Amino acid sequence: MGWNSWNRFGPFVSERLVLETADALIETGMRDAGYRYVVVDDAWHESVRDDAGELVENRWAFPHGMAWLAGEVHRRGLRFGLYTCAGTRTCQGYPASRGCEARDARRFASWGVDFVKVDWCHTAGLDGEPTYRVWSEALRAAGRATVLSICEWGRHRPWEWAPALGHLWRTGPDIQDTWASVLDALDRQVELHPFAGPDHWNDPDMLEVGNGGMTDDEYRSHFALWAMLAAPLMAGNDLRAMSEPTRATLTAPEVIAIDQDPLGRQARRLRSERGAEVWVRDLADGSTAVLLLNRGESSGRVGFARSDLGPARGALVVRDAWARRDVGELGERHEVALAAHACALLRVRRA
Predict the structure, then answer these.
(1) Would the CA dihedral through 245, 17, 150, 154 be positive or negative?
(2) pLDDT tops 90 at residue 312
C-alpha cells in the first residue's frame, strides 16, 4: 500500500510534491490505514548519466538529492520508492537501466530506496523473464531489502515466472481514469487467481480514485474490486486536496482489511450475467468476502445464493464492509439494489 506520483502528476514531480504528499499521508489518516510507500515515478532524472556512469537526480526539482529525500520520508515513518526502466530509456526518454542493473541497484540502495518499479519502454528484443531475473539478482546483491515491482504490462505472462523474482507484476496496460479502463483491467484478472499469494501479487495497476474522471460510486467499485483482487493499493491522486468521499473510500478500514487479508487469496468471479457480477474471496478467519457489482448502465438488483459459498453449516451473518455493520442473517439468497456501476462489498461469517 502506498502512493505513486504518475497517475495524477505524470512527469511533473519534485521534492516539494513528495514531502507534501508524505505529510498528507499522515494528516489524512492514510498512513494509519496502512499506506506506507511513497513512490516517485518517471522523470526524476537528469537527461544523461554523470561522468562515472551513475543516474543523477534533477537537482532543480530535487535540490537536496534522493538520499536526503529518502531520509525525510523515512523520518515520517514511511518508505521510499523510485522508478527506472528495463530498456535503454525510460518511457519519458530519460536514462534507463539496460546494462546498468547492478550499478543502479547499488545506487538505489545507497540512497535508501525501499521500492523499485522497473518499467518496460525501449525494450525491443528483450524477453521479460531473463530481463527481470537480472534485476532481481542485482537488488539482492545490493544488500537492501527492496520491493521489486515488475511492470512489463503482462506482455510475457509474468504471473507464470515473476513470483520467483519480484513481489508484484503488472498484468496489463496502463490504467486510465475511466470506468471502461477499470473494467478492462478487471477482466484481465479473471483467470489469474491461482498465481497470487503472500509476497507475490497480480497488479492490475495503480488506483485512479479521486482523479476526477469517474463518479464516487465508480471509485468505490474500483477500490472494492482491487481489494477483492488482493491487489497492491497504490493511490495516485493529489492527497493534499482530496474530497471527503475520496478520503473515506481510500481509508475504509474493513475494505482495506479484505485487501490485506493474510491468507492472500485473490477473488474468483462466480457469475457474470447481463452486467451483474458476483465475486468471492476466502479469508483467513474462515469468512468469505462477497462483492456484488452492477457494471451495467441502469440500476438493478444483484444477489448471490447461500449455496455459492459452499457447504457451510449453521447460521451465517452478512456484514456490510462499507457501512461497517451487520445487515442480518443469510437466508437462501441475499440481494442488493445497486445503481449503475455501483457495488456492495459484504463479509459472510458464521454466527
Answers:
(1) positive
(2) no
List, for residues 36-95, the tens digit of each pLDDT value: 999 999 999 999 999 999 999 999 999 999 999 999 999 999 999 999 999 999 999 999
- Check residue 153 and give its pLDDT: 97
Torsion of the alpha carbons at 132, 136, 141 and 147, rounded to the nearest 10: 130
Residues 6+ apart with CB under 8 A from 166: 132, 135, 136, 147, 148, 149, 150, 200
Instruction: Please give the share of the chain, as a percent, with pLDDT higher than 90.
Output: 95
Contact assessment for residue 229 and residue 265, using Cβ atoms and an 8 Å cutoff: no
Instruction: In whole angstroms, give the CA distance from residue 263 to residue 175.
Output: 27
Distance CA 225, CA 234 (A): 14
Q: Which domains does the chain have, with CATH numbers?
A: 2-259 (3.20.20.70), 268-350 (2.60.40.1180)
Distance CA 201, CA 266 (A): 9
Angle CA(304)–CA(324)–CA(255) in degrees, nearest 5?
75
| Nearest C-alpha neighbor of 295 from the set 182, 171, 210, 190 | 182
Active site residues: 119, 174
Residues contacting residue 148 through CB under 8 Å, at least 6 positions apart: 116, 118, 132, 135, 136, 139, 165, 166, 167
pTM, to two decimals: 0.96
User: Which residues is 85 bridged to in the sheet?
Assistant: 119
Average pLDDT over every residue of 206-228 = 98
Cell of 243: 474530497
Angle CA 141–145–66, to nearest 5: 95
DSSP category for residue 9:
H
Tell me, what's the pLDDT at 151? 98
pLDDT band at residue 111 using 50, 70 and 90 as cut-offs: very high
Q: How far apart are CA 249 and CA 79, in angstroms?
A: 22
C-alpha 124/C-alpha 150 separation (Å) is 17
